[in-house]
Design brief:
The protein is mainly beta. The protein has one domain: Roll (Ubiquitin-like (UB roll)), CATH 3.10.20.90. It is built from 1 helix and 7 strands; from the N terminus they run E-E-E-H-E-E-E-E. The strands form 2 sheets. A 5-stranded mixed β-sheet has the order 2-1-7-4-5, with no helix packed on it. It has a two-stranded antiparallel ribbon with strand order 3-6. The longest helix has 7 residues.
């Protein structure tokens, strides 16, 4: 797929990638299951680099760092938003 995918994607026994559905900002999106850098996921879904990406787990928003690697599973939910805080 892309250089920003961290390791082998969840390929089936026949060598085809395992495509899953996740929710990003309320929209269903298809992506190959596997490990991704958070910054790579943002790029894939057109989320501006200066936005934050949160994973929604049990109704709680978990912030993800751009350099963090996450395993993407079917039916997961993600929400992007303008970064909070910082100096002015």
């Amino acid at each position: 797929m892309k250089d920003d995918v961290v390791q082998d994607l969840g390929a089936s026994e026949k060598g085809h990638p395992h495509v899953i559905t996740i929710e990003v900002d309320g929209n269903l999106q298809k992506i190959e299951q596997g490990k991704y850098l958070v910054s790579a996921l943002k790029a894939v879904f057109g989320i501006p680099p200066d936005y934050e990406l949160d994973q929604v787990v049990g109704g709680k928003f978990i912030p993800l760092a751009d350099g963090e690697t996450i395993q993407v599973h079917p039916h997961e939910k993600f929400v992007s938003h303008v970064r909070h805080g910082g100096s002015s």
